[in-house]
Amino acid sequence: VIEHGQPEHAIVTTCAYCGVGCSFRAEMKGEQVIRMVPDKDGQANHGHSCVKGRFAFGYATHKDRITKPMIRASIHDPWQEVSWEQAINHAASELKRIQAKYGKASIGGITSSRCTNEETYLVQKLIRAGFGNNNVDTCARVCHSPTGYGLKQTFGESSGTQDFDSVMKSDVIMVIGANPTDGHPVFGSAMKKRLRQGAKLIVVDPREIDLVKNSPHVKADYHLKLRPGTNVALINALAHVIVTENLIDEAFVQSRCDVASFNKWKTFIADPRHAPEQTETITGVAASDMRAAARLYASVNNGAIYYGLGVTEHSQGSTMVIGIANLAMATGNLGRIGVGVNPLRGQNNVQGSCDMGSFPHEYPGYRHVSDPATRDLFSTAWNVPLSLDPGLRIPNMFEAALDNSFMGLYVEGEDIAQSDPDIKHVHAALRAMECVIVQDIFLNETAKFAHVFLPGASFLEKDGTFTNAERRISPVRKVMKPLAGYQDWEVTQLLSNAMGYPMNYQHPSEIMAEIASLTPTFTGVSYEKIDELGSIQWPCNEETPTGTPIMHTEEFMRNDGKGLFMLTDYVATHERITPMYPLILTTGRILSQYNVGAQTRRTANNMWHQEDRLELHPHDAEDRGIVDGDWVGIKSRAGETVLRALITDRVQPGVVYTTFHFPESGANVITTDNSDWATNCPEYKVTAVQVTKVSQP
Ligand code: SF4
């Protein structure tokens, strides 16, 4: 219940929804939040907010919150409330029992991009130091892991290049596979402001997002409405035009890039097979539009690219990220304000969860676990021997569970039983495990497979930091006491101590101090400095003591300081349409809801979007005798579900689209196990399906 009235005091904290990371004043009456007011001094939002951050915080005190630890012997038994001590000791003894029976590598954990940097750091430390293996992965596996890979390879750092304010100097904005007005609303508004000032807009998306023509006073100059799964063919076609029409920024390439790699790439991309005229049958986009869009991007002073999960969640997600990086380097659109390559991170702390060493092959700061010097650094600091072997990725954990070699899992703040693809396979793997520990604020779908439930704390109940899509580390401040008694980092610490690896932090600031001492891009970060400056964009160290709004201004972060071009052959996805599965399903988000909806569905004043619907082109609907509002069955090679139809020409013929905010809609029942070749990021965006009219379920 949100009570109105005059606040007694206010505490500045950071929104826990999307990667914009808006700053808010939590206005309080005693221990109760009565209003969330966007902070005019917020450096990511400048006093703006969207409906989620402003109104959708009531979930923190929703009646569904679980505030007592619980255990059960089997997932078929009822939960039994126990003390924290009993729950933690039970979890630790189960994990130790599994390790004794199946080996050290038979347990692991999953971190969440919803949690703070400090919490994430502590979970990966527990796993590496306390579990004795590198079986830690993050939910970023299923969203932006290709960004991490692609940008690390080409630019030397796994992050976007700009701050948000940079867009106000862009002359052309290219939005690829992102829907900023729904997914990142405050930044989407900033983008619209710049477009109203006259910047040009290129949208690359299979669906007509609002920016194409449905936003007031904004219209895309080009909407390249490509077929799902053909991103790489399209980016290669744009690059082909730039190379063959001499639109290269030679001075930038010669001074800032690895010239040998550029020459190789130039020969590759100039091949006629990449010409727009050759690829229009693949992409479905007119060659003339591809040529015009490429000329526009390359001909202005400042061209900026913003992209989202429509780039990464493909079998060629990493290739596409590299293709975008190639395009920006070739046109000199890097290293200054107004340009850049900018992944729009979905969740509030995707950037941070990756920075904090949540991947099974990387320590904090993206340093490989097989590097002996890095291993020794952490081993000395943590006072424990560490493994040089990379651990299991999330999909590998599931495989290993079904092989009876991975039997214990600690999941903090992530609902893998709803959000991961090919969900029947995920459920089977979870059922096979002997101990699943879920730490969350609600009994989520994953908890149905859990043996131990440890109550988590909402963002209003904890101290820490989030890192947004522009690398901005912002403060998260506790405005009310944790309902279950502990903040999440404290629970991880309790589990670590029970496992026999001692931790004794008194406050998250001590965890950040440790992160700073071990991570070159964070050496200048501290809570004192965040309080003083409001926020800090990493890298922040001796060279850049107040942080770095724009990266790669003098040189790239690779060892030789040069940007690396890489070849990007288009390879068609395995997921093909057939007479049995003649339509391609792709997915996205809507403004009022958030991911699997655990928070927004529990916020009464944010519920005008009540269901996920299947968008269907009028021609495809007519062929099937479907009218608006009909119930339709959607069947893929992986599974089937039922939704109501929404007939619209925002999707092209042959393509259907849905959101995934409601568990009952089961979007991930039908997504397949295809994944990115480099990172295993699932191919959520391309699923061949059949759609038929059905009666109401
Ligand atoms: Fe929160 Fe994102 Fe909305 Fe800002 S734009 S208020 S960070 S959901």
Write a concise synopsis of the structure shown:
Keywords: 2Fe-2S, 4Fe-4S, Iron, Iron-sulfur, Metal-binding, Oxidoreductase, Repeat. This protein is an alpha/beta fold and 697 residues long.
Number of domains: 4
CATH architecture of the largest domain: 3-Layer(aba) Sandwich
Count of helical stretches:
24
Q: What coarse outline follows from CA principal-axis ratios?
A: globular
Alpha-carbon distance between the termini? 33 Å
Here the CATH topology of the largest domain equals: Rossmann fold
User: CATH class of the largest domain, anyone?
Assistant: Alpha Beta
GO cellular component, one term: oxidoreductase complex
Protein name: Formate dehydrogenase
GO molecular function: 2 iron, 2 sulfur cluster binding; 4 iron, 4 sulfur cluster binding; formate dehydrogenase (NAD+) activity; metal ion binding; molybdopterin cofactor binding; NADH dehydrogenase activity
Family: Belongs to the complex I 75 kDa subunit family.
Key attributes of the depicted protein:
single chain, N-terminal domain of TfIIb, globular, 32% helix, Rossmann fold, Dimethylsulfoxide Reductase, domain 2, 697 residues, binds iron/sulfur cluster, alpha/beta, six-stranded mixed β-sheet, 24 helices
Write structural notes for this entry.
With 697 residues, the protein is α/β, with parallel strands linked by helices. The chain has 4 domains: 9-61, Single Sheet (N-terminal domain of TfIIb); 70-141 and 349-535, Rossmann fold (3-Layer(aba) Sandwich), CATH 3.40.50.740; 145-343, Dimethylsulfoxide Reductase, domain 2, CATH 3.40.228.10; 583-693, Barwin-like endoglucanases (Beta Barrel), CATH 2.40.40. The chain is built from 24 helices and 26 strands. The strands form 6 sheets. A 7-stranded mixed β-sheet has the order 5-4-17-16-15-6-7, covered by helices on one side. It has a 6-stranded mixed β-sheet with strand order 22-24-23-26-21-25. A 5-stranded parallel β-sheet has the order 10-9-8-11-12. Helix 8 packs across helix 12 (287-299). The two termini are 33 Å apart. The relative contact order is 0.17. The mean pLDDT is 93. Bound molecules: iron/sulfur cluster.
